[in-house]
Amino acid sequence: MPGIDGDRIVYIGDLIGGNYHADIFLYEIDSDGNLPIPDDGQCRSILTGSLEVKSSPSHAKIYINGKDTGKIAKWTFDDMAPGDYDVFVTLDGYATPETEHVTVMSEQTAKLHFHLKKGGTPVPEFPSAFLPATMLIGFLGAVLLIQRTREN
């Protein structure tokens, strides 16, 4: 069942329930309304690229476009859509390097290597939620001590 979506032809077959693998082919329609066929007569799909991220030392957490990927360096992200990405890494005890801008291209692997330097903000040994609670308890203790002193 062919159809047109903007300037692109879309084909949707008659599908029944189940799992499918889909290949998407995009071709621009020329000014005469014809669908150009490649010189070799073969259909081509939009291809993905890869992004390889390394760090020295290794095992730094990888962030892409500000989001934690859940992966650590050295890692290769396959099947990435071609486009621009902002990447940075973090590792406890090391300064966070500047964000790197990288372009992923079809059928190519973009590579980033982050060289980390010692001296990042140390991770506290206790969760920061304990500090306000400790201060509150100390303040209440001081208030009670002052109140008892005034009563005597």
Task: Describe the model.
- It is a single chain.
- Helix content is 14%, strand content 37%.
- The strands form four sheets. A four-stranded antiparallel beta sheet has the order 5-4-7-9, with no helix packed on it.
- Residues 1-11 have low confidence and may be disordered.
- The protein has one helix at 130-151, and strands spanning 2-5, 8-11, 49-56, 61-64, 67-72, 75-80, 83-90, 94-95, 100-104, 109-115, 117-118.
- It is elongated, with a radius of gyration of 28 Å.
- Among the domains are: 49-118, Carboxypeptidase-like, regulatory domain (Immunoglobulin-like); 124-152.
- The chain is mainly beta.
- The longest helix is centred in the C-terminal third of the chain and has 22 residues, at 130-151.
- A hairpin with a 2-residue loop joins strand 1 and strand 2.
- The protein has one helix and eleven strands; from the N terminus they run βββββββββββα.
